[in-house]
Amino acid sequence: MNNKLIKFFNLAGLTWFVPIVKICAGDNPTQQIRQMWLIIGVPIVAFIIFLSLWSASASRINTSLGAIPGPSAVWHEFGGLLDEHTAERQKEQEFYQQQLQENQETLTKDPKAEVNTFVYTGKSTYLDQIFTSLYTVFTGFILATLLAVPLGILCGMSETFRTALNPLIQIFKPVSPLAWLPIVTLTVSALYQTSDDSWFDKSFLTSAITVTLCSLWPTLINTTVGVASIDKDLVNVGKVLRLSWSTQIRKIILPSALPYIFTGMRLSLGVGWMVLIAAEMLAQNPGLGKFVWDEFQNGSSQSLGRIMVAVFTIGIIGFALDRVMQTLQNLFSFGKPQ
Amino acid sequence: MKYAKIFTLRKPMIACFTALTLLSFSVVPVTNAAEKLEKPNLKLGFIKLTDMAPFAIAYEKGFFKDEGLNVQLEAQANWKVVLDRVVSGELDGSHMLAPVPLGASVGFGAKADIITAFSMGLNGSAITVSNDIWKQMKPNVPVKDGVVVHPIKADALKPVVDLYKSKGKPFNMAMTFPVSSHNFKLRYWLAGGGISPGYYAPPQDTSGQVDASVMLSVTPPPQMPATMEAGTIFGFCVGEPWNQQAVAKGVGVPVITDDEMWKDIPEKVFGVNKAWAEKNPKTHVAVVKALIRASMWLDADNNKNRAEAVKILSQSKYVGADEKVIANSMTGTFEYEKGDKRALPDFNLFFRNNATYPYYSGAVWYLTQMRRWGQINEYKDDAWYIDTAKKVYRPDIYMLAADALVADKKAKAEDFPAKTETGFKPEQAYFIDGVAFDGTKPNDYLAKFAIGLKGKQVVAGGKVTGE
What we know:
The structure holds 2 protein chains of 2 kinds. Chain A is built from 12 helices and 2 strands, in the order H-H-H-E-E-H-H-H-H-H-H-H-H-H.
């Protein structure tokens, strides 16, 4: 039981809890407490030192928007953003209630009248923007994975294919999202016609595709390496057994290459999240990137604090995404964590 | 579960939802077809400037709603994005610089058919120089009774520019867009003081720096104060609140406002794609009606609503700057040098003086300036100027909205220009350099300037050629 728990915590990246479980199981407490101090205490102390350094130095730097906000000011802005969110939701509800009421009145007067079914158009709040960003990055990331894994498998299996694609990969891999954006924007505008009830906004597609283009490469390269480095004996056994292509891929290639693929996907998601903010700023997709840009444009005395809130949000979400991917990666590495 | 609803919306869900609701309502027969708008759900773009106020007010005060419109307002990154998105149809219409639809029609930059039936206000911009340049300029500025005399002409800046030129250092200033009111105002002011702002030579050279003493370049409005603080530019011409922001942050000093330079310059317009307007004529009129009411509200009873407007505009979803910065210019005063606050009641006009009416003469003035600086790099006859203006500026649509408002008893007929209005204001003489402008004689007007293209002149090979 305990071993299973420890294994689970290690797998899930929640190593903080491992010593506690061990103490409960009756391991040497002094040793475990030392261990706890090392993995819990030290990071916390470091974080506190960081906060106090920040707090002490921030007030000394004066920008044209006032002093750089310290931790407490940022925390305050975070509260303000949450309040705004609740207030906006309140307004939204009132809007729908009023619409419903008006519609009922019109219908009682004239049961055949056409009524309004408007969607609320208030501003998107900070939490809305976080979810837009997550939605965008995952769309881009899934697209990238769907492209990169099959391509990677092909590259890994055929040397000719690999040599053919190699120059393209090497050339496009280092391109920044800022360079892709204008091209993507214009292409999307030309090819994608929106109407009133289109599923996606152009700005959303532009950002998502930019994320795809930038986060494609780590998965592609890792899949290639993973597939190419499969034990030749395994492949030969497959040939001897006259396994069909699809069975070979499913039974031999995918299982052995999975750890590599997941490593690639983890890197890809990290890149995608980083790229997204820049893409949203320029494509005006209503997510965190646009939030930062709008606040920069606002230039009010709260703007810096709010941008700082966004910086921490971006960091914490990035960290959480990485942890999730790490766990997946561990799960598929069959007990050899990388 | 306070935040349980955060998973709401996002387009696919909205699409499913609207599809469902449409299905459930499709059995209801349409009764009042005459009143029905072609497109009640609109997305309008704006740039974070105080003159977007008619949008914010029409939204907050329910004027859009009164016309049966469900409008979403969205801040845009810059003027280029605004134009592209109106052309591509992502935006149904937008807050636009007054000359942008003209530029698009002439084909300087992107060619597109944009029209406007509503002028979003007059004046509201200023030219600001950095503290350092102001210090060098100030000795040349006339002083009376211990205070600086306004308006300040560019003559005071000329020695400073000459000094930079003699040292071989570039003198950089910024405006907001090549076909912006700010570019033309800044050029007008500089040229009035004998400083050459440089020519455009399309299609090869669109930098506008041919034969220039002052290098003008584009900076997005909200970045102006920060760019000036960084020392990249020495001055800029931009709308509010960015001039007052520069004063509040102590980075620069406004030297002249546009209503001191040419009273009642059309500043922003509500621009829509021509194809959109043809497809949605009733919707277009409905939007213009709501915007007219918002502008009336803004100027009503001697600006008594301005304080409330300032509060609305300072929300982060609209302009977002601090309330007191916005208030500085919106409430009839303007702060020049820190502490030098003066009354300027006609700075930022929304409705008075027929501010919302899209005059042809305003359009012709911008076209003459585009010709003057080479954006139109060939001779055009007077008829061309007038025809182009009439193609883009559409007082006919404006008057439909005005008549509807009068019929609704939401406005009085005398609030609007008379039916006999030609769209050309009589000869206007209140320019800072004293050159009078008659909208019906653009070529005569161009011939009066010392600096600038006139007659058959063109810019070629890096210089002005021709007679």
